[in-house]
């Protein structure tokens, strides 16, 4: 039933200091689908997301054991170049964090750090991805003004476009709508539905309705463990585990 | 009951206002006092002459401040040129690269450095830096120097402002949200790319503020500089020449030879000059900061 996985997490354990944050995680993220990770605050779902592009590396006292295979390659293999792994994934964080530069440079940033300085090329990429997130018409006359002047909702779409401009295969979203108003949230959700044609999307969310609206698969994380994983309808309407049922009911009823 | 409460509030607000005005007033008073005391000199010699003349002959009542002004800028300039790159790199290392243990070990040591009394830096300068310049560095460039030079002053001063710049910079860097660094690394940037293009850019105003504070401190630093600078009233032609910064001039001479007419007034004018330089410098840097803020927000 589960199609070929794009990301395959195997026997993953994460310790931060004395705390065992993720416990023996085994999870296959299907290719070109939206997978939501749901669960109560502090259950480890954000940490799980961050293990997928090795963003935990910078934190002190983190110990990661196990494998995370992306396209069959273990990204925790010491021989792997981390910048190369991250280039495959666009990240959307809880609040938008535009880089301290203008709108154009924000989008061009990813291309430039990977060595593309061709002006004409960059112009095309910037326009294409701003159009892709339906931001082009709103900002095309002020591409050179600081990105921080945009509204929060626009900033989040900018950050999505910035992530897409490095031409990733995967989009990681860490509660990407939690700081947004309902309209902006709707914008982002619609974008996700369009984008899953081309990208594998992993979405951490605490809004069950959102998980229901956008995702094909849901993983329920509780106390650092994957309790249940399956198609959206199954998890939300007919969960097998008691924990999942309790959690889903608490929000849906 | 209620009235008393409100009265108290009103009284306190006025009291605070008074205290605030008082503290600002002190600065104004100092400025006015210095100006008043320098008036006799300003009456006898034109301002332009005082600033541009290099002749310092108190017994003949000729007072040219040009060497002292130049000396002040030389020493401060050298100090910043040495200290800024070093402290930037140190701060970047400690905040971005070093692991937490190194940071916890090194930071207190750096802060300790700022707690050492200036006179000790002066002694250290005389014992280490001056001979070092005389015997090891200067021979490559010129024939002879005593080592007591603006370079010695600059080096000693650089080490004194070093901890100040580092601790401000680390605070500035810590204030940059981790998520911003993550956003950059998530796009595949290396740590250096993230540092250069995101961290430093985000911190421009903080970096400028730290430099401004350090320079203000450097302008006024007296005792350590005085001990190693040579204190000759001449315009230094190279970094190995002696210089005589304004604070050293005042500290060395005030209270002595006061029988010379105008001498008192001349030293007060030196103080006024220092006051104006620091004031102007702060004003200019505020304008720059304001410009930057306007541009980025």
UniProtKB/TrEMBL annotation, chain A:
Gene3D superfamilies: P-loop containing nucleotide triphosphate hydrolases. PROSITE patterns: ABC_TRANSPORTER_2. CDD domains: ABC_PstB_phosphate_transporter (cd03260). One of its GO terms (biological process) is phosphate ion transmembrane transport. It holds the Pfam family ABC_tran. Keywords: ATP-binding, Nucleotide-binding, Phosphate transport, Transport. Transmembrane segments: none annotated. One of its GO terms (molecular function) is phosphate transmembrane transporter activity. SMART domains: AAA. The keyword RNA-binding does not apply. The keyword Glycoprotein does not apply. GO terms for cellular component: membrane. NCBIfam families: 3a0107s01c2 (TIGR00972). This is Phosphate transport system ATP-binding protein. It comes from Flavobacterium urumqiense.
Automatic annotation (TrEMBL), chain B:
Residues 69-285 form the ABC transmembrane type-1 domain. It comes from the Bacteria. The keyword Manganese does not apply. Belongs to the binding-protein-dependent transport system permease family. CysTW subfamily. It is a multi-pass membrane protein. Its main location: membrane. It is found in: Cell membrane. Part of the binding-protein-dependent transport system for phosphate; probably responsible for the translocation of the substrate across the membrane. Keywords: Cell membrane, Membrane, Phosphate transport, Transmembrane, Transmembrane helix, Transport. This is Phosphate transport system permease protein. One of its GO terms (molecular function) is phosphate transmembrane transporter activity. CDD domains: TM_PBP2 (cd06261). The chain crosses the membrane at residues 12-36, 65-94, 106-130, 150-173, 206-233, 266-289. It comes from Flavobacterium urumqiense.
């Amino acid at each position: 039933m589960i199609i070929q996985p794009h990301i395959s997490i195997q026997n993953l354990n994460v310790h931060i200091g004395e705390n065992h944050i993720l416990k023996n995680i085994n999870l296959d993220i299907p290719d070109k689908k939206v997978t939501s990770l749901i669960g109560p605050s502090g259950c480890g779902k954000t940490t799980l997301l961050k293990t997928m592009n090795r963003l935990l590396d910078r934190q002190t006292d983190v110990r990661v054991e196990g494998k995370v295979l992306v396209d069959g390659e273990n990204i925790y293999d010491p021989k792997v170049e981390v910048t190369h792994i991250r280039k495959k994934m666009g990240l959307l964080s809880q609040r938008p964090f535009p880089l301290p530069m203008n709108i154009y440079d924000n989008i061009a940033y990813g291309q430039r750090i990977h060595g593309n300085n061709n002006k004409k090329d960059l112009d095309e990429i910037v326009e294409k991805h701003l159009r892709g997130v339906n931001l082009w018409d709103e900002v095309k006359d002020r591409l050179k003004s600081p990105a921080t002047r945009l509204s929060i909702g626009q900033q989040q779409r900018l950050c999505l476009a910035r992530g897409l401009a490095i031409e990733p295969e995967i989009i990681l979203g860490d509660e990407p709508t939690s700081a947004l108003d309902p309209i902006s949230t709707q914008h982002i959700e619609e974008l996700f539905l369009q984008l899953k044609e081309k990208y594998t999307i992993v979405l951490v969310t605490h809004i069950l309705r959102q998980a229901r609206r956008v995702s094909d698969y849901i993983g329920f994380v509780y106390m650092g463990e994957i309790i249940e994983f399956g198609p959206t309808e199954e998890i939300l309407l007919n969960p097998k585990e008691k924990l999942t049922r309790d959690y889903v009911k608490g929000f849906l009823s | 009951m209620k009235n008393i409460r409100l009265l108290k509030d009103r009284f306190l607000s006025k009291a605070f206002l008074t205290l605030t005005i008082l503290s600002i007033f002190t600065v104004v008073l100092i400025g006015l006092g210095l100006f008043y005391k320098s008036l006799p000199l300003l009456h006898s010699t034109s301002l332009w002459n005082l600033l541009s003349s290099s002749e310092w002959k108190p017994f003949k009542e000729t007072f040219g401040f040009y060497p002292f002004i130049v000396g002040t800028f030389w020493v401060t300039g050298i100090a910043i040129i040495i200290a800024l790159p070093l402290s930037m790199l140190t701060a970047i290392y400690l905040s971005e690269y070093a692991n937490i243990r190194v940071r916890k070990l090194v930071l207190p040591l750096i802060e300790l450095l700022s707690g050492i009394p200036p006179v000790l830096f002066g002694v250290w300068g005389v014992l280490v830096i001056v001979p070092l310049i005389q015997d090891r560095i200067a021979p490559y460039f010129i024939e002879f120097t005593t080592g007591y030079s603006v370079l010695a002053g600059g080096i000693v001063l650089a080490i004194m402002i070093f901890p100040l710049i580092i601790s401000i910079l680390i605070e500035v860097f810590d204030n940059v949200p981790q998520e911003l660094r993550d956003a950059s690394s998530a796009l595949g940037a290396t740590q250096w790319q993230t540092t250069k293009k995101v961290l430093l850019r985000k911190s421009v105003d903080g970096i400028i503020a730290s430099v401004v504070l350090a320079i203000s401190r450097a302008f006024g630093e007296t005792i350590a500089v005085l001990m190693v600078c040579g204190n000759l009233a001449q315009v230094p032609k190279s970094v190995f020449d002696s210089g005589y910064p304004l604070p050293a001039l005042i500290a060395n001479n005030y209270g002595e030879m006061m029988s010379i007419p105008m001498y008192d007034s001349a030293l007060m004018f030196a103080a006024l000059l220092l006051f104006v330089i620091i004031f102007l410098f702060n004003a200019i840097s505020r304008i720059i900061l304001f410009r930057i803020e306007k541009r980025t927000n």
